[in-house]
Amino acid sequence: MSTTSRRYAALAGVTAAAIAIGIAEPVAVLTGPRSAPLVAVGGVVVDAVPESLKQLAIDIFGTADKIALLVGTALLLGAFAALLGMLAARRLALGLTGIAAFAAVGAAAALTRSGADAADALPSLAGGGLGALVLWMFIAGPLELDPWPWSPPTPIAPRDEAPQAPVSPAGPMTSDHLPVPVTPAAPPEPDVPSGRAPGEGVEPESRRRFLTGAGVLLGTAAVAGLGGRWLAGWRGVSAAREAIRLPAPVAPAPALPAGADLSMAQLAPYVTPNFGFYRIDTALVVPQVDPATWRLRIHGRVRTERTYSYADLLARPLVERYITLACVSNEVGGDLIGNARWLGVPLRELLDEVEPEEDADQVVGRSVDGWTCGTPTALLRDGRNALLAIGMNGEPLPVEHGFPVRVVVPGLYGYVSACKWVTELELTRFADFDAYWVPRGWSAQGPIKTQSRIDAPRARNRLTTGPITVAGVAWAQHRGIRRVEVRVDGGPWQEAELAPTVSVDTWVQWSWRWDATPGEHRLQVRATDETGETQTERAQGVVPDGATGWHTVTVTVR
Predict the structure, then answer these.
(1) CB-side neighbour CA atoms (13 Å) of 427
(2) Which label site among 195, 228, 376, 516 has the fewest CB atoms less than 10 Å from its CB?
(3) Cis peptide before 544, with omega less than 30 degrees from 0?
């Protein structure tokens, strides 16, 4: 097959796959966004890939890891589709079989997701059926090239030759009766247009029809795909969220003390705005949960099972607190941490109402998409401000941060506590159930470690000699920070000044004045919590229970 032939075949395959994916999107509006083939397959990939690859994706792409996964999946699909097109050019049945396999994989992936039913297979099956039709149209239907560039030219019978004079059995003779040498006739040449190699003689009108069809179909796929995404958003819960008016809390958050936010360039603000709050979860598409139909079921090892509606929560006395959340995937010096003002119902009250059994040492939070986390029951009842949150920084929870309801627990990494889009709380035992991340190599217990970070100056900043303010944040939620120290080039530790903070459940800003001298310098920071424990110098990665080590920044002073 020539290069030109392969290009035509690959284009046919890619166009068929684009139609399959594009058409599946509006169908998924009816069955749920998680049933779309790309999302369903991507979800299976998220669950199946080794933890080291997941962490690598977070390290490289940060909170854009899900976009990177979807783009990567689409690129791999495009390569697979191009191969299917070339196979179909040789034998149509092979290409159609590949399309069918693709549809089957998408349908199977959709059916494996939590809460799936038979209808979730429809987007993949509908897309696969139309994709197969498009492939047939290019290979053997109305868009077929004439002739196919990968088909060998059809030999044409040799032209009639002039009648030959009878030749004696001995062959022709000269006048001297000597045999005359006979040159064998050359084989007939195939009927190939002048100046074109065999297999490249596509009629211009046929080529235009092929390329126009491909362009129209690719455009249709794009419109269908983007339109489906738009419809999914239109049918989402943003309007319902905007209509909610949160009640005033009976216990408002304490006022921020003067100076809690140093308001310095490069320094993270004391309160993280909603749009800048980190998001790490396994949801490739943000769940759209209608607050009117949302329910929370608390069950398991309890004496009284209870179910709560969103209206039930709004009618209860609400508490507002500043709480800093951190992701266990946060590297030393990383930004997967944020502080917000949360509004919600104390979880301790709800647990008291269901009366957990004495041996129920774990509360399993279950999200609408099936994700689970396991939180020690004792920590939810020890008096800390563990909330079933409905508000964030004075407004209903953003959809991407768990609307309508999520769990917020100070002092624990999110993977063991921060269940977004929560629909169930099950009382059980750690011995009986492993939450989502535990079989994947993470610790069942996830208390936040004492950590600190240098925000200013940034690594590789070029500075001028003289006084420079080094500043950053430190955190040890539910224990509090007692001291932060900075050192330069391995010298003695110098104590930094701590800004006032609102509670032990939030991070604290700090600053230190440095008289910088010319040269390249290495700045390091460490913190000591209120229990007297100083963060360790030992460098450890995030697995299995959070990173350790001192944040180090190298700067140049001129």
Answers:
(1) 26
(2) 195
(3) yes
| Token pair listed for 77 | 């699909």
Which CATH superfamily hosts domain 274-439? Oxidoreductase, molybdopterin-binding domain (3.90.420.10)
Q: What are phi and psi of 48, to 5 degrees?
A: -100, -25
| 468 close to 514: Cβ distance less than 8 angstroms | yes
Strands 451-456 and 362-367, by their bridges, are: unpaired
Contact between 504 and 477 under an 8 Å Cβ cutoff? The reply is yes
Quickly count: other Cβ atoms within 10 Å of residue 214's Cβ: 20
The reply to whether 274-439 and 451-557 are identical in fold is no
Least Cα distance to 66 among 279, 234, 222, 226 occurs for 279
Judged by DSSP in three states, 473 sits in strand
Distance between the two ends of the chain, CA-based, in angstroms? 63
Burial 48-71 (b: 16+ CB within 10 A, else e): eeeeeebbebbeeebbebbeebbe
Mutual angle of helices 122-139 and 37-48, in 10-degree steps: 120
Between the alpha carbon of residue 245 and those of residues 362, 376, 446, 536, the distances in Å are: 33, 33, 34, 45
Query: Thinking of the domain 451-557, which architecture would CATH place it in?
Result: Sandwich (2.60)
| Helix ranges, 372-468 (H) | 377-380
> What pLDDT shows up at residue 178?
47
CA distances (Å), 218 to each of 14, 67, 145, 189, 546, in order?
Answer: 9, 22, 18, 40, 46
DSSP state at residue 235: T
* 368 touches 421 (CB < 8 A): yes
The amino acid at residue 198 is: P
- Measured CA to CA in angstroms, residue 553 lies from 61, 161, 471, 485, 487 at distances of 21, 90, 12, 14, 11
How much is the pLDDT for 198? 39
CA 288 → CA 132, 175, 236, 294, distances in Å?
Answer: 32, 102, 6, 11
Residue 84 has phi, psi (to 5 degrees) of -60, -40
Strands 462-463, 551-557: pairing is parallel
Yes or no: say if 162 and 197 are a contact pair by the CB < 8 Å rule.
no
Helices (H), 363-441: 377-380
CA gap 157, 194 in Å, rounded: 18
Say whether 376 sits in a helix, a strand or coil. strand
Residues 531 and 89: their CA atoms lie apart, in Å, by 71
**Which residues are bridge partners to 424 per DSSP?**
297, 366
Instruction: Confirm if 289 and 238 have CB atoms less than 8 A apart.
Output: no
Locate the domains of the chain by residue range: 3-149+202-234, 274-439, 451-557
Report residues of the chain scoring pLDDT below 70. 1-4, 63, 146-202, 233-235
pLDDT at 75: 86
What amino acid is encoded at 20 in this protein?
A
For residue range 2-42, what is the model confidence (pLDDT) as tens digits? 566 788 889 999 999 999 999 998 998 888 888 888 888 88
**pLDDT at res. 202:** 63
Residues belonging to the chain: 558
Give the Cα separation of 310 and 293 in Å (integer): 8
Among the listed residues 446, 296, 318, the one whose alpha carbon sits nearest the alpha carbon of residue 367: 296
